[in-house]
Amino acid sequence: MTLSVLMPVFALMTSLLASVILFALPEKGYRLRTIINLAAAILKIALVGVMIWGVAHGREYEAAFTMVPGVEFVLRADALSMLFAGLSALLWLLTTIYAVGYLEDSPNRSRFFGFFSLCVASTMGIALAGNLFTFFLFYEMLTLSTYPLVVHRGTTKALRAGRNYIIYTLTGGAVLLFAIAWLHGLVGDLRFQEGGYFSDVDPSLNGPLTIIFVLMMVGLGVKAALVPFHGWLPQAMVAPAPVSALLHAVAVVKAGAFGIIRVVFEIYGLEAAEAMGLLAGLSVVAALTIIYGSTRALYQVDLKRRLAFSTVSQVSYIVLGLCLFGPLGVIGGLVHLVHQGIMKITLFFCAGNYAETLGVHRIDELDGAGKRMPGTSVAFTLGAFGMIGAPPLAGFITKWTMGAGALEVGMDWVVAVLVISSLLNAAYFLPILHRLWFAEQCEPWPHERRWGRLETSAWLLWPPLITATLMVLAGLLANVPFSPLSWAELIVLREVAL
Amino acid sequence: MTLWLMAGLLFTPLAWAVLTLMVDFRKGRLVTWLGMAVQVLVSLGLWAAVASDGGFLYLLGGWQAPLGIELRVDGLAVTFVLLTALVAAACGWHASIYLDPGKPWHRYFWPLFWFLWAGLNAVWLGGDLFNLYVGLELISLAAVGLVALGGQADALRAAIRYLMAALLGSLAYLLGVALIYGQFGTLSLAGVTELMNSGDAQSGQTFPLVLMLLGLALKTALFPMHGWLPPAHGIAKSPVSALLSALVVKASFYIAARLWLDLGGELGGFALAQLIGVLGSLAIIWGSWLAFRQTKLKQVVAYSSVAQIGYLFLLFPLTWGVTEAISLQAQQGITLQVISHALAKAAMFLAAGNLIMSVGSNRVDALAGVSRFLPFSLFSFGLAGVSLMGLPPTGGFAAKWLLLQASLASGQWWWLAVLLAGGLLSAAYVFRVYRASFIESTDTDQFYHPSRSLEVIPMILALMSLGLGLVAEPVLSVMSLPFEGGGQ
Asked: Are B87 and B246 within 8 A, CB to CB?
């Protein structure tokens, strides 16, 4: 057992063990629970940090054993997995801080944090999975561990949302399992491999491989909220704000998007997928999802629902980026995995702050909130501008790179999609900003709480400020080593070698 | 060494049955704890011995066949012996706390429990058709008695119904055995197989096989002969339900599987194999649907057994007329399904018993608030449910994966749909229970809290069923599959 074997196992174990301990803690052990939560999160960041450093310098981390006859369980750290693992480790810490503040004085915290850690452990497993079988294992574990979080409040609405979530995701999981089992039957146990496997595949396999690809996209598309499989996402908004933040930024939708990246890059191979004509179809679905999500977002009056439809739209940027099959487009898609996470988590933190501090849930109640809560509102504004794609924020980097990538491969229509989407983004975010900063407060806040000097609890205020700062830095320092953009470039350099 | 282990294994259950018959519940409990420890140790020892040195034939008392009783101690048999020891010990431990010593008829729990255990071991190790019959009858009678221990009129009615089904099943099986004996002049399964392979098979011998399978399917509660199971398993005391669902139905299935694998290749046919597979599929669909519709918690779990048993019968189509490799895959999948279902279902029944005890009602609706105040028991129930749904990383998932691969490789696509739909349907009834327990209807804890040991036992079983998926490969490697006679 060398360190290179143990590192990915440790990274997974930090949150898995934390989860077991948190379940075992008595409900009243607030302080100990917070300490364990934060210690585990910081330890994980350290472990992932070491692995990122190692992977950048060409080291390999891998642990594997045979689980079922013919199938291996593989945990492995490569450049792609570190992109996702880094994102989830970082945002886990911030979301935990936020959740501690958010759930103060509410029941069932032991259960909440237990499943929360389990959810992060699943995300880490998804990031580190070295083959489709292992990926599927954690993919389903994620479904199970998020269900109790979605229904956490135990209301009829929450339970209904939970039921729909489970119906969508388990059906998607069954479709994915079918596809994985079929692929396994055709070609055996495939580890994720840079460049994929099917660049010179027997033409007779083209038919089954196409069907398997479609099935996989359906199975993964449910979690990635590709239209028409997005129905569960806006409903799942009834969950507590930290859960929505996590679901939208790192855990569920990203798991789907990350799975699509793995399948396209490291099972099929970008060139092979393009040659089989699979990417063209996928790009149309992604483009439709982008436009559809943004359009629906326009009509939402509930803040969290508007953000949810915005997620539907934004996650498909990642997928659309892959379909551009040129280096720039792919970099744009990959980097958006991180950028969208940071931006969306900022927005959800802020929405949670408005709800917790002022009792505001609807957009038309936000008039004048900027004066009452300047810190939160600055963070929200930065997040919104990032989503719209204003330079020099993170979202701009994504859209610029993708646009350039689209022109490079001659898919000019994608640029049109990006422009329309940005206009729609502006159309649904700018009115909110207008209300925040320029409208006068005309009614008292629905349900206001006060926390001393600060506009809200410090636990709630710092996380969005930090993520907003990160978002600005990701844009400004995009060319510094280890920035999301540089890391995406590194991945593309290693993966695709186009 | 192995001789001592064998002696301990066979002797303890019978001796303890007689011993506990003579004392009251509390003393019987003490005696039983000792016996369970012996059984678990002996089973572990035997399993380890076979895992390292391979299987052997054991002649009871040293008599040669046809006079003596020939026991076949191979990897598969010892795995099931060990499984029985673990599950039965867990159920016995749970029962020793759960059952009310004040009820006079509860003293009969221990003798029946030990007779049941003896019967199970006899079936796992039995090498000839008649001994298997004896073991099967021992199991049935003890099981019927255990169901009747519920005491009320409902329990007696369910027990009588169970008795009728079991006797009918035994009769059909015995008739088949008699016909086989008439034609081959031997009862040893290995002997019959040998004669068959030497070319003595004639047409018309399919009938005894079908008769035996029919009887065994009735005892295993294969759709549409499942009517007796839900009332019996639902009404019995929770530790009894756990034993019945986890182990008892597996015994008759085990015999059916061995008959099929030894004789089915010659005597069976494509149509018969497919028919049994279709009945299994219908059991999965119909059982899950009924489980979803039940309003009582234990009935949900009982109907879930009907559905889960359906999976086992996919063994028949997936091993007939296919290559060795595919057949092996199917057998491994089914074996894992037997083990993981035994662990998960025992965990589920025991956890359900705890939950019912806590909320004071058998209704699913009554579970509101359980997730907040009784998370531990709910968690055991939930983990067991994950295995039943066949989600990773449980043993249920490993089983499903192997069955999916076997279906694909043998070109029998239709079972894929059944396996995937079955998983979703079981999710439907399991999540219905979760959903009920997450409702926040009350802010005060008015639940009875069972003792810690009662709560820990189902958790251990559920964790074992979960862990089985991770160690499926090493566990399977001990079993010297495919099912074959003799060992040496």
From this structure: yes
